[in-house]
């Protein structure tokens, strides 16, 4: 349920039809290819949640401790990294530093095509959903830190299954997009 609820966030729901239609168009209207492209996209989402589960395992096994909010700021290396990151982001904001995205990534024709592109798009979609879904993910991660590793790992992966489920269904049956509610005030209330 938590994974499904990640799709209702304001930064995910509006782009859900766009992503599904792009996957369907990349499949060149082949129903079986559309389904497999959708499943590849779902695999990317699952890889993101597998990464979170792996981080949980590493924290528990290697450090033998449960991560608590603010613990990371006791480590001087992490504080130095965060300061450097903030300075770099400030330089970007003041347009003192810039970088160009390669055309193979930024062009509409080259980005996200094929199965590897679909997996990458799924992983990126899961990452980009975190600003809106941070509260749910942080609560789930904090809960997972206090659970036995098998239970925590399965739970994190099931969140990924929940988030990817609508993409799997909609790429299998793109006609359902017409019946999905449009973004609006109901999302703000929810």
Helix content, binned percent: 55-70%
The quaternary state of the protein chains shown equals: single chain
The portion of residues forming beta strands comes to under 5%
Taking the alpha carbons of the first and last residues, their distance comes to 15 Å
Number of helices: 9
The main pleated sheet reads as: none
Radius of gyration: 19 Å
Number of strands: 0
Overall 3D geometry? Answer: globular
Low-confidence runs: none
Order of helices and strands: HHHHHHHHH
Q: Structural class of the helices, strands and pairings?
A: mainly alpha
User: Mean of residue pLDDT?
Assistant: 78
Features:
single chain; 190 residues; mainly alpha; 9 helices; globular
Describe the structure.
The chain is an all-alpha fold. Helices cover 68% and strands 0% of the residues. The protein is built from nine helices and no strands. It has helices spanning 2-5, 16-26, 31-62, 76-93, 103-106, 114-128, 130-145, 149-172, 185-189.
């Amino acid at each position: 349920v938590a994974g499904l609820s990640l799709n209702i966030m304001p930064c995910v729901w509006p782009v859900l039809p766009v992503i599904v239609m792009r996957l369907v168009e990349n499949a060149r209207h082949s129903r079986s290819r559309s389904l497999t492209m959708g499943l590849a996209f779902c695999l990317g989402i699952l890889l993101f949640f597998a990464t979170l589960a792996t981080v949980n395992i590493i924290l528990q096994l290697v450090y033998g401790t449960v991560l608590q909010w603010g613990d990371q700021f006791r480590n001087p290396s992490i504080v130095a990294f965060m300061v450097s990151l903030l300075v770099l982001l400030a330089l970007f904001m003041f347009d003192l530093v810039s970088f160009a995205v390669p055309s193979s990534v930024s062009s509409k024709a080259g980005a996200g095509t094929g199965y590897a592109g679909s997996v990458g798009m799924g992983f990126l979609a899961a990452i980009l959903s975190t600003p809106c879904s941070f509260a749910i993910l942080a609560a789930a991660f904090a809960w997972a830190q206090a659970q036995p590793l098998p239970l925590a790992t399965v739970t994190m992966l099931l969140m990924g299954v929940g988030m990817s489920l609508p993409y799997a269904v909609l790429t299998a049956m793109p006609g359902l997009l017409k019946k999905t509610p449009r973004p609006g005030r109901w999302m703000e209330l929810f």
